[in-house]
From TrEMBL:
Class of this enzyme: isomerase
Species classification: Bacteria, Pseudomonadati, Pseudomonadota, Alphaproteobacteria, Rhodobacterales
Necessary cofactors: Mg(2+)
Gene it is expressed from: xylA
Top-rank taxon, per record: Bacteria
Cell compartments where the protein resides: Cytoplasm
Designated name of the protein: Xylose isomerase
Record field: catalytic activity: alpha-D-xylose = alpha-D-xylulofuranose
Binding site for Mg(2+) 1: E232, E268, D296, D339
Cofactor binding mode and count: Binds 2 magnesium ions per subunit.
Length: 435
């Protein structure tokens, strides 16, 4: 099926920092070597199908502003047209990956059997598109938050029929992801939480969510899916209290239900901000536990109280995120998914291309700055110096000691420590040399 949606827009190319072309890369050169590895292979960019093609431009206070040729998204003909447009954009940007929810790629039919039929049909169609494209699937997932059936959660729903519908839905999406060669499968519990404890059995809901995720892992091994299973933390919105609040909460949950060796995290910048954290904090927490899987790169408006999902434009923030990713060894099956959407006033096809060009360039700049900091070693040296006292034999012995023995040593040696500067401003100035 042909489409003229991007008619007149040429394939985006790298033109260098001197370029003034808004639809050209100034920093993202896929073949540029960074720390001995191609930039494309470091960043592993993915386009989000939902925000780029399924989102209609609404916000909490207003409805649709985008009028696309595939609207309304209610039949398979328009679903296939949407796929044609998507793969045209993948080609224009030359991205290696994309990501989807089932509800993005097929129309909602109501009954599971009908949803399954349309999902299988569009999976075959997308598979044909992929054969003629270099763009692969970074991950698939199930939308279990938009339809009214999910209003009280999916795996945590008090109605066992909803739990069953959720299980069948996830199975179908895992099958589709596996068939399309996806490198990961993601679960985001959009409504796995509660509004009030007056009608919530919190312990039962957590146990059900833990069992549900174990079923997912069991099915992964049954079908021979080699990709990673990822969960995505988010603190609130839409639920008042969400069970997957942040990286640390998710790690505790995974350990409680014996999943720490089977499941990793897909971290989003916007969700980190909603949780009161920085993105690099969430990445560092996941990396410290060996659970860093993939990232959704976007940003929030710091003057708004919800998840605005804007394209990244802050090089220092992005650089610090990639610094911790590089320190953790980089991505394995994960990558950089643009879980970001146009502003609802940005109506034109060119806006969609320009947004991704800008986001990819910011990530490239951030990656190069992060690599330069890693290679320079200044931050690592500062850490080594700050914690140098712990390398002394007496300090190491103390960790295996007890409070009484430590007290005896403090008295015997008249220990009276003087505080030492953390040099935060000097380290911030150091980072600014690279960004």
């Amino acid at each position: 099926m042909s489409t003229g949606f991007f008619e007149g827009i040429e394939k985006v190319s790298f033109e260098g920092e001197g370029s003034t072309n808004p639809l050209a890369f100034r920093h993202y050169n896929p073949d540029e070597l960074v720390m001995g590895k191609r930039m494309e292979d470091h960043l592993r960019f993915a386009v989000a199908y939902w925000h780029s093609f399924a989102w209609e431009g609404g916000d909490p206070f207003g409805g649709q502003t985008f009028v696309r040729p595939w609207h309304p998204q209610d039949d398979m003909g328009r679903a296939k047209l949407k796929a044609d447009v998507a793969f045209k954009m993948f080609d224009l940007l030359n991205v290696p990956f994309f990501c989807w929810h089932d509800a993005d790629i097929r129309p909602e039919q109501g009954y599971f059997a009908d949803n399954l039929a349309t999902l299988e049909e569009i999976t075959d169609y997308i598979g044909e598109k992929m054969q003629a494209s270099r763009t692969g699937l970074l991950w698939g997932t199930a939308n279990m938050f938009s339809d009214r059936r999910w209003m009280s959660g999916a795996a945590t729903n008090p109605d066992p029929d909803v739990f069953a519908f959720a299980a069948a839905t996830v199975k179908s999406c895992m099958d589709a992801t596996h068939k399309l060669g996806g490198q990961n499968y993601v679960l985001w519990g959009g409504r796995e939480g509660y509004e009030t404890l007056l009608n919530t059995d919190l312990g039962q809901e957590l146990d059900h969510m833990g069992r549900f995720l174990n079923m997912v892992v069991e099915y992964k091994h049954k079908i021979g899916f080699k990709g990673a299973i990822l969960v995505e933390p988010k603190p609130q919105e839409p639920s008042k209290h969400q069970y997957d609040y942040d990286a640390a909460t998710c790690i505790g949950f995974l350990r409680k239900y014996g999943l720490e060796d089977e499941v990793k995290l897909n971290l989003e910048q916007g969700h980190a901000i909603l949780a009161g954290h920085s993105f690099e904090h969430e990445i560092a927490v996941a990396a410290s536990e060996g659970m860093l899987g993939s990232i959704d790169m976007n940003r929030n408006d710091y003057q708004s109280g919800w998840d605005t999902d804007q394209f990244p434009n802050n090089t220092p923030e992005v650089a610090l995120a990639y610094y911790h990713i590089l320190k953790a060894g980089g991505f394995d099956t994960g990558g950089t998914n643009f879980d970001a959407k146009l502003r609802r006033q940005s109506l034109d096809p060119q806006d969609l291309i320009a947004a991704h060009v800008g986001g990819m360039d910011i990530c490239a700049r951030g990656l190069k700055a992060a690599a330069a900091m890693v290679e320079d070693g200044g931050l690592e040296q500062a850490l080594t110096e700050r914690y140098a006292g712990w390398s002394a034999p007496a300090a190491q012995a103390m960790l295996g000691s007890d409070l009484g023995s430590i007290t005896d040593r403090v008295l015997a040696e008249a220990i009276n420590p003087e505080p030492r500067s953390g040099r935060q401003e000097m380290l911030e100035n150091y980072v600014n040399r690279f960004v």
